[in-house]
Write a structure and sequence with these properties.
single chain; about 80 residues; mainly alpha; rod-shaped
Amino acid sequence: MTDVLWVLVGIIIGSIGGVLGISLVSAGRFEDKEKEIQDLRTQRELLKEEIFRLGKPKRGKPQPRKKRYYKPRNNQPKNKKV
């Protein structure tokens, strides 16, 4: 009778220890998943900003400069000796 009692106590203690062990192992995985989810959310926001920036219409080519029209130099005849 005492042997059966010790077996039952062992099963109860073992099951409690197993549940605690599994919960400790899975808690680390849950934390890793939370970090990964936060990472993906940050990437999503950055990509949204990039898409918005690239979606804006471009200005096009810059306007060319105006032509400079030079006045012809005064081509007056030099002092002629008379």
